[in-house]
UniProtKB/TrEMBL annotation:
Residues 98-311 form the ABC transmembrane type-1 domain. PANTHER family: BLR7065 PROTEIN, INTEGRAL MEMBRANE SUGAR TRANSPORT PROTEIN. Pfam families: BPD_transp_1. This is Sugar ABC transporter permease. Keywords: Cell membrane, Membrane, Transmembrane, Transmembrane helix, Transport.
């Protein structure tokens, strides 16, 4: 036992120093292993994002500078910015489709927001049968765009739809073909999309209303504030973040709306209801011009990116989150 005890201070430092260095070396390697573990756990999701998002986006940018038309393969090849030059200066459809897209987004988002807010305020109140009315009001959101189209084509049908019913009641002659009339087609598709999109705002705003602190409403009522003042000074400030987020999301979705317009009007009459994404779809599926369709997609992507950044800056969304 005596021989195992270090005989001098030098041996003491040597023996115990070696023992104390080993845990220190191990502790230096642990942060490295720990830093790799989150990336290993995230790697399946990152791979999926790379395969299904990053690669398609990069491929669209790549194809935008090439001529790729399966009906004219002998013309395929690198053409640089020729697609963009033609788009901005010669294409007779690009600018009208972009203007209509902006008009479509503004009208739809504002209309859906106002109607959705009204519905959310109504179904947030306590009354008999509230659960049933919530289910009825929210049900259009679960219906696909193609099925929505089928419903509203039947509604607008001059022979069997609402105008026929009104004619039987002595209102009008029942011959209005609103989907082919240039004076009525825009508002006809707007109403159909409002019916489908309003429940989204109603659901999101109702969820936010139910988290509103009731003590603020009680304090405002004690101060003599009426319904309008409570709405302006308590409800709207509480809904601000939800309104900013939902209008941005819905604006992007409405800009990219293809299914309803394609199946209801196919962009007609005379291209009056052709949005930019619908024009992209036609270039790819009908003209088979994937190069030009990719160039149009790049422009749409840049427009959405710039508008989203500016919108968030103007509404101070980041500051609101902080």
């Amino acid at each position: 036992m005596i021989d195992e005890i270090p005989r001098s201070a030098t041996e003491l430092v040597t023996v115990y120093g070696k023992e104390s260095d080993e845990p220190r070396r191990r502790s230096r390697t642990r942060p490295l292993r720990g830093s790799l573990r989150p990336w290993l756990l995230l790697s399946p999701m990152l791979i999926l994002i790379a395969v299904f998002i990053a690669f398609p986006v990069a491929n669209v940018f790549y194809n935008s500078v090439f001529e790729k038309n399966i009906t004219q393969p002998w013309n395929d090849g690198f053409i640089g910015l020729e697609h963009f030059r033609y788009m901005f200066f010669e294409d007779p459809t690009f600018w009208p489709s972009l203007v209509f897209s902006a008009k479509w987004v503004v009208v739809e988002v504002i209309g859906q927001l106002i109607l959705g807010l009204i519905i959310a305020l109504v179904v947030n109140e306590a009354f008999r049968g509230r659960g049933l009315w919530r289910a009825v009001v929210f049900s259009p959101w679960a219906i696909s765009g193609v099925l929505t189209t089928a419903i509203w084509i039947l509604v607008y049908n001059p022979g069997t739809g609402i105008f026929r019913l009104l004619a039987e009641m002595g209102i009008g002659d029942g011959t209005q073909a609103v989907l082919v009339n240039p004076d009525t087609v825009f508002w006809a598709v707007v109403v159909a999309e409002l019916w489908r999109g309003v429940p989204f705002f109603a659901i999101m705003l109702l969820a936010e209303l139910q988290s509103a602190p009731q003590d603020l409403y009680e304090a405002a009522a004690m101060d003599g504030a009426g319904r309008i003042k409570r709405f302006m000074n308590v409800t709207l400030p509480h809904l601000k973040t939800a309104i900013i987020l939902t209008t941005l999301l819905r604006g992007v979705w409405e800009f990219n709306n293809v299914d309803l317009l394609l199946t209801m009007t196919n962009g007609g009459p005379a291209g009056m209801t052709t949005t930019l994404p619908l024009y992209v779809a036609k270039q790819a599926t009908q003209a088979h011009d994937f190069g030009y369709g990719s160039a149009l997609t790049v422009v749409a992507f840049v427009i959405l990116l710039i508008v989203s950044i500016v919108y968030l800056k103007l509404t101070a969304f980041a500051k609101e989150e902080d």
